[in-house]
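I had to read the description of the data format several times before I understood it. Each protein is reduced to its one-letter sequence and a matching series of backbone shape codes. The format is easy to grasp once an entry is in front of the reader. For illustration, here is how one protein appears when written out as sequence plus structure tokens:
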Amino acid sequence: MDIENMIAFVTVAELKSVSAAASNMNHLQSNMTAKIKKIENHYRQQLFFRSTRGMELTPEGEKLYRQYKKLLLLWEETEQEMNRRELKLRLGIMQSVISENITKAFSDLYEKYPNMSVTLITGSTEKMEEELIEGNIDLAYTFGKSDLQQLHYWPIGSEELVLVGKRVKTAASLAQCLQSETMLILSKNCLYASILQRIYSAHGIHLASKTEVGVLETLLRLASLGMGVALISKTNVREFGVTDFMELPQEYRYIDKFLVTRTNYELSPLERQFFKISQSL
């Protein structure tokens, strides 16, 4: 089984879509389907089934996914060692994206490559796109995108958003949660802020005030004290042990995640390792 087919299988499994995986890998959808069929024929197993959430792995598919992830990581390590590429990461991450997965990926790579150089910039999606275009970083994790021609956006799944605040659990409705509440945001260009603004507008609610906090932990603390409401990812809810949150209506609930690079930029073996480790944890 060649590396290209392994990558195709893993990409379909992670994006839960043949068409999205084909776009990600710059392949025709028919070619991607043929690769998956070839793998299933090789192992004489059904590895995917279709559900309302997209392409889901069967139990045998789950086994193969774990094995392929190990093999691909070993392949990236081999590429790094044999090609002797410079050990550097220049990365941009939205503050709300920084999670245990990201920090664990840094830890694992520092253990392998103690001399690795890391440049890390945080900010909004718009800031990450600007830093990429100016050449200050080489890749970025973002929620949402601006579809700039100078950049290439690799879809890497979606994230569920929730509303946090002291009174959200006892409120009878989303509209009641928002009424007379201060909007807590990380920055004025934060994508979450624009989504929350749309929710206010859709419910015909006048925004009482807006407070820019800048630090995620502080924002969550203020929300827990009843000083306002905010949108954050459900991943952050789990990581920080937040219990006062409300799920959003379907039209606002999910936001797309992207790995962004400059157009025609080729990821180094080290960058591919970082991406695969952070996605597999």
The chain is about 45% helix and 20% strand. The radius of gyration is 21 Å.
